[in-house]
Amino acid sequence: MSKIAEIAAAVEGGKVKLIEALVQEAIESGEDPSAILDDGMVSAMGIVGQKFQQNELFVPEMLVSAKTMKKGIEILKPHLTKDSLGKKGKVIIGTVAGDLHDIGKNLVALMLESAGFEVIDLGVDVSPKKFLDTLAENPDTKIVAASTLLTTTMRSLKDIVEAVEASEFKDKVFTMVGGAPVTQDYADEIGATAYTPDAGSAASKAIELVS
Ligand code: B1M
After folding, report:
1. Per-residue CA distances from 136 to 6, 39, 167 (Å)
2. How far is CA 198 from CA 2, 3, 16, 177, in A?
3. Is 56 helix (H, G, I), strand (E, B) or coil?
């Protein structure tokens, strides 16, 4: 089995104790960090999601897989980021109210940091008010970015975009939205500045917006 296949199997099987060593070994053997992330961990989480949908595994297993992936990302992090010191400006990011999923949001934050942004990460279950209060405390912010994984919480993206649009910062701040159920059509419908399907393209789009 290849190193990347071993990592995928560890994430899928929730092998928390094995993942750090496996990722370390893969890096040392010269595997591309982006391939370790995408072909090893992200795709394995996709399979976990499918199995959950088909009742082949349940929330506790999904949680252990998430924990495994998070540990793996910690080892990978220094190999994905470049030291560019937040020179492109500030981004406020969070997962919307009612939603506790944070792996994708954390990856977007990581890629934005890597692209040279200073990221203020508000975590999960973040209300529109919290986004706005943080914006008021950081009036030099360039982008407000919100993530959601649940169809039931997508509406919160609209609330955040509307809150920014109704604020004194509306002409200075871009809004970016994303997460598995979000689409370009939905982003257009709610008036977000930009939608991107993954973390890599979120970073490229953010650079494009502030350039
Ligand atoms: Co949840 N969960 N979960 N879950 N979970 C999903 C999302 C689900 C699709 C599974 C399924 O049914 N197939 C389903 C949602 C169905 C729906 O709404 N349509 C679901 C459900 C139902 C639930 C619960 C309701 C289950 C329950 O309790 N009965 C519950 C909700 C809790 C809550 O939030 N209130 C729940 C709980 C959990 C755990 C806590 C156990 C755990 C999360 C742990 C954590 O995040 N710390 C969990 C997990 C792990 C998943 C799956 C399996 C994996 C999510 C993940 O991390 N993917 C997921 C199934 C799936 O996605 N296939 C599922 C890997 C990650 C890298 O991808 O987050 O999509 P993703 O991020 C991508 C892109 O979406 C994009 O870039 C990222 C990487 O390139 N992106 C952005 C994300 N944010 C972006 C923002 C941007 C741009 C791009 O701009 C700002």
Report:
1. 46, 39, 9
2. 25, 24, 25, 10
3. coil
Cβ of residue 52 lying under 6 Å from some atom of ligand 1: yes
| pTM, entire model | 0.89
Q: Determine the distance separating the centroid of ligand 1 and the alpha carbon of 139, expressed in angstroms.
A: 31
| Paired tokens of 75 | 């080892």
Atom of ligand 1 nearest to the CA of 148: 84
pLDDT in tens, the chain (211 residues): 899 999 999 999 999 999 999 999 999 999 999 899 889 988 898 898 899 889 999 989 988 998 999 899 999 988 886 655 567 899 999 999 999 999 999 989 988 887 788 999 999 999 999 999 999 999 999 999 999 999 999 999 999 999 999 999 999 999 999 999 999 999 999 999 999 998 888 988 998 999 8
User: What is the 171 CA–ligand 1 centroid distance (Å)?
Assistant: 32
Is the CB–ligand 1 distance for residue 196 below 6 Å?
yes
How far apart are the C-alpha atoms of 16 and 10, rounded to whole Å?
A: 8
Residue 105 Cβ contacting ligand 1 at under 6 Å: yes
| Residue 147 CB less than 6 A away from ligand 1 | yes
Distance (Å) of CA 78 to CA 24, 33, 110: 12, 10, 10
